[in-house]
Amino acid sequence: MSQLAGKTDMERGERGWEFDPITLDELTERAELMTRIDRKYVLLGDELPRFLEQAPSGTRVLTIDGADRFGYESTYFDTPELDSYRQAAWGRSRRWKVRTRDYLDTGSRFVEVKTRRGEHSSKQRVLASPGLDRGALDDPARRFVAEVLHSARIEGLEVDDLRPVLRSRYARQTLLAPTGNARITIDTELAWAELCGGARLRRPDLVVVETKTAGAPTVFDQALWRLGHRPQRISKYATGLAALEPSLPDNRWSRTLRHHFR
């Protein structure tokens, strides 16, 4: 199994961090949670081991071909006016996010659309056309994006106006709660690149933990609360872009930016 936050397998085992594996098919069957409530937390890297020690017995880790930590790269698309960013910044009840996501270990690429209404977010995705560039949307991708946004009642957006704005890269582990009704992702090695201005940002010392559930807080949320962590407003797209472009409105993420990025 791969390393976790710089800890070797032996160290993980000695500290009780070893989790039984779960396959992708089983994880998807038990807790796909495409419509869910997300709670996000920002930790320093040296705070992660203490959190993992709190994981309940029976927690399982997504494992593929013996590895349990995988590289991700997301390219975010927005309008020239940054409508996706600004709707999030203004806390609009209906908002959206369009991206391509690359699974670096398998070479798979998906086109994904996330929509949000109130506390609930929904994600839909399709496999990208063979050969589609990570910074482009071809006709099938644009039709898919338009259909998802229309079904979510998000109007007034010209899909042809979308352009690549930001790229994020990170390593991810996914854990499943013993009850099977909740999962969490643990993102490390965080990095961003602005695709228009060329600014870059790396925060290898930070960890973003995200809990995903259909409703009530998870056992992982409760463990984080016991350790003094509370949910924070952070978006890999919006917070990353705000950190790289200080002129953008950022009140929604000002606390996170002040504490962790500036």
TrEMBL record:
Pinpoint the VTC domain residues: 36-244
Q: Which Pfam families match?
A: VTC
Q: What protein is this chain from?
A: Polyphosphate polymerase domain-containing protein
Q: Which organism is it from?
A: Luteococcus sanguinis
